[in-house]
Design goal:
23% strand; OB fold (Dihydrolipoamide Acetyltransferase, E2P); elongated; GMP Synthetase, Chain A, domain 3; N Utilization Substance Protein A, Chain:P, domain 4; 15 strands
């Protein structure tokens, strides 16, 4: 730079992170404002920064007209041509036409101390506005990024952090209740948004947003960073528990194992960063039933059925011992699973489901009795037709399993009573099976023996006597 003012402009622009042109424009406007306050002539004043001298030149602009009505802003064409003829000759003078603007230099040395103060204020204001606009534009494009900051102070529950050369706020509602800090601590946060304010842009940070969890996984798991494993959803109750759904684009890569890491090193690093928040990593599936089953981890699900596809409602049945685990502390596990999958989940134990099915059977039997009382005696042919229709209807619905020596009708009673698999039957007791309508104690013993692959009690006694 050739002069001190230009050097100052360049240094200021570099310090504030703005273009030198912004500073020059601010200086030009400041001198123009100060000149209008000093001259008060109603003239159309214009300023221009002179790169050669490092000074700001001041001009009064006048429009060339035929007849002058305002001497402060207009000049007659004859007068203008006469003036230019004396200065530049006939050729330049004759080139002046109506509507042209002429510049008349005015001195700036006479502006004085008050004008200089006004100019200084305008310069600082313009530079500050440009700086704020730069900060807003920069950080508005970085929403969702994770940044480390140093805690400077506390204000009414909010935490003020220093990120780079600016201050940002971590509001109370965006803080995890499991965490506590002191000034000087380094904290990783996610930029949640940027607000325009009277005092400049306010950068809002968060420690509770799921975006923080996603970004931490991207930083810790190379497979997520390179796109091999994708995060298809993440939900949190900050400080307590989180669930993350992951999906692998390659069959050979286990998405859950990649996120957990060798002996849990990767996920443990994230848990430490989140001050002990428990993280469930589950595999994403396009099949909603499989996805809900995975999302309820670590609880083991017996069966899942869609109650209302339009309203996205599912019924989940778990073993009695698994009910509290599936629901979670204060309903946390099922609540997070519902948020992650987008389905409303109704969890029931095997016992609750069995009682529900019994109540339905009793209602059907009562309706059947009423129908039988009011019905006319059926002809033999009608009975045969009904029987064949019943056999046909039963045949149309395949059984989920078979048991040696046990008829289809009995197995259907078991399924309706909540025993949907052979393993479920084998794990039951005689008393539990006897509670199913239409199954007595002897039949229950026979069913258990068939399900467990054992000999029936009577057959076992006969075999012993023969021996």
């Amino acid at each position: 730079m050739s002069n001190p003012l230009q050097q100052t402009i360049e240094a200021l622009a570099k310090e504030k992170g703005i273009e030198p042109d912004v500073v020059i424009s601010a200086i030009e406007e400041a001198v123009a404002t100060a000149s209008r306050k000093y001259y008060k002539t109603g003239e159309n004043l214009k300023t221009r920064f002179n790169l050669e001298t490092g000074q700001v030149d001041l001009f009064a602009l006048k429009t060339v007209v035929q007849d002058v009505t305002n001497a402060a802003t207009e000049i007659a064409i004859d007068e203008a041509r006469q003036m230019y003829r004396q200065l530049y000759g006939d050729d330049v003078a004759n080139s002046i036409e109506l509507g042209d603007e002429m510049e008349f230099p005015k001195p700036t040395e006479v502006l004085g101390r008050i004008a200089a103060q006004t100019a200084k204020q305008v310069i600082f204001q313009k530079v500050r506005e440009a700086e704020r606009e730069n900060i807003f534009t920069e950080y508005n494009q970085r929403v969702g990024e994770v940044h480390s900051g140093t805690i400077k102070r506390f204000e009414n529950g909010d935490i003020i952090l220093e990120i780079g050369r600016i201050e940002a706020v971590l509001p109370r509602k965006e803080q995890s209740r499991a965490e506590s800090y002191t000034p000087g601590d380094r904290v990783r946060t996610v930029i949640k948004g940027v607000n325009r304010g009277a005092k400049g842009p306010q950068i809002v940070l968060s420690r509770t947003d799921p975006a923080l969890l996603i970004k931490l996984f991207e930083q810790e798991v190379p497979e997520i960073y390179d796109g091999t494993v994708m995060i298809r959803g993440a939900v949190r109750e900050a400080g307590d528990r989180a669930k993350v759904a992951v999906f692998s684009r390659e069959r050979d890569v286990d998405p859950v194992g990649a996120c957990v890491g060798m002996k849990g090193t990767r996920v443990q690093s994230i848990i430490r960063e989140l001050r002990g928040e428990k993280i469930d990593i589950v595999e994403f599936s396009e099949d909603p039933i499989a996805f809900v089953t995975n999302a309820l981890s670590p609880a083991k699900v017996q069966r899942v059925s869609i109650v209302d596809d339009r309203e996205r409602v599912m019924e989940v049945v778990v073993e009695d011992k698994q009910l509290s685990l599936a629901i979670g502390k204060k309903g946390q596990n099922v609540r997070l699973a519902a948020k992650l999958t987008g389905w409303r989940i109704d969890i029931k134990s095997e016992e609750e489901k069995r009682k529900e099915v019994e109540a339905q059977f009793e209602g059907l039997e009562a309706l059947g009795g009423e129908a039988a009382e009011g019905a006319e005696p059926a002809a033999p042919g009608d009975a045969d037709a009904a029987a064949s229709a019943g056999v046909q209807e039963a045949a149309e619905t395949p059984l989920p399993y078979t048991l040696a020596g046990i008829g289809e009708k009995t197995i259907r009673k078991l399924v309706d009573g909540g025993f949907a698999s052979q393993e479920a039957v084998a794990g039951a007791t005689v008393e539990q099976l006897s509670e199913i309508p239409g199954i007595g104690g002897k039949t229950a013993e026979k069913i258990l023996a068939a399900a467990r692959g054992e000999q029936e009690p009577a057959a076992a006694e006969t075999a012993a006597e023969t021996k």
